[in-house]
Amino acid sequence: MNIISKIKYDQNWNIGFCEQTSEELIRDKQLKPVRWLKHSYRDRWFADPFIYKVTESEIIVFVEECPMENPKGIICELVIDRKSMRLKERYVMLELDTHLSYPAIIWHDGKVYVYPENGASGELNIYEYDETKHRLINPTCILKEAVADATIIEKDGHFYMSATKYPETQVKAYLYESDSLFALFHQLNDLPYQTDKRCSRQGGNWISKETTHYRPAQDCVNRYGAAISIMEVRMSKAGIEENEMVHINPIRGRYGLGLHTLNFYRDICVVDGCGYLYPYSGLIVEMIRKLKRRL
The domain spanning residue 65 has which CATH number? Predict the structure, then answer.
């Protein structure tokens, strides 16, 4: 990547944390101040964070890691110092010949499972997490389709999954179902339940509060992963109906160009944000882009 490409590079993603519950976010309709991960890498970025564990001293997350020169994602586990927000340990959990992202987590029967996006393979696999080896093992195919950001929720002993399909990954959201987490999921009906680019593609794990469910969704109108919409969901065998409860814009500052993942673990919220690799030079590039759009 030459210097001009680096100056124009606007996909420098990072992850950040705030102490906030999902109830507080829905009530207040805004994020509390975010503290961004500190790390020494200059050749890659981290995005699509899902929290695995939180202790008094550490936060452990599963993320997509993507090198800038060769943008093929892998799935990594990051151990972060909770006080300083510095990266302490990094483990490669899964690397394949094709791009991986969005390491969605689900807890089931006392075990942790991860089903990362791998649309280039044409299928979706779920893996068991081996905490001792920091690896994803024993893959099982649960969908024989190329989908993006598939996210599963269990409801009344039944499993539902929201996903968008390739190539229209930002436009049409479909609902799938299965009686088992490890059986093939089947599309609930032929039509998408959501076709609004502002809130179709999933942006994090489902949020369940007693009988009410919420779905983080990406706003991709102005650009991919520009913001997050929190959708209140009414789900039944017939499908989904939903309406927007909260719209979360990118966080002003270095990572203010986009925000496309939001997840909770108890009273900790994790998000990601993207910005220019060189923030000050990037501001000039952004001003030129806005000027060209006006002309």
Answer: 2.115.10.20
